[in-house]
Specification:
Length: about 170
């Protein structure tokens, strides 16, 4: 399977946003109230919000293309864009999503390994991320790739406060 991972640019904003919204809905509709999913989309997955995130020099978006079609994306954060930790020796994976049709093809591993290689190229000592405690598939995926839970934090999601596990891998 031919694929390409590239850094997103402002010309990608609308297609990135469409991909992000679709993959988020696929990942989080099950097990959540649709009102909370929609509220979060309107807060965090808007053109204005993504534009601000793309303008931030401490954040980088990577797009995964399969046969000229967007299949997934990752967003990584350096300090000061990191959400929980503010550690210059780390890289945060703030988002890593694939569309459902591309799950199970090994592309998640490829995209995740890209973030690890990016962290190493930037001389980071470890990579970390937050994952919803009820997202068993994602937790299993990250554990399989060497991450372990080191903490947790509350995550406001619509009218609920959910819990995210914080996971990391040291290099």
């Amino acid at each position: 399977m031919e694929y390409l991972i590239r850094k997103a640019n402002f010309a990608d904003l609308i297609s990135l946003l469409e991909l992000a919204r679709a993959s988020f809905i696929q990942a989080f509709t099950e097990g959540n109230k649709i009102e909370n999913v929609n509220a979060y989309l309107e807060e965090a997955f808007t053109e204005e919000q993504f534009s601000e995130e793309m303008e931030n020099p401490a954040s980088v978006f990577f797009l995964l293309e399969v046969g000229r079609k967007l299949a997934g994306y990752a967003k990584v954060n350096f300090v000061p864009a990191q959400t929980d930790l503010q550690d210059n020796s780390s890289l945060e994976v703030a988002r890593l999503y694939l569309l459902d049709e591309f799950i199970g093809l090994g592309l998640g591993k490829i995209l995740f390994n890209h973030t690890i290689n990016f962290a190493k190229l930037n001389r980071k000592k470890y990579l970390w991320l937050g994952v919803w405690e009820k997202n068993k598939r994602a937790i299993k995926f990250y554990e399989k790739h060497g991450l372990s839970i080191f903490s947790s934090h509350p995550f406001p999601f619509g009218d609920e406060i959910q819990t995210d596990f914080l996971m990391r891998i040291d290099f």
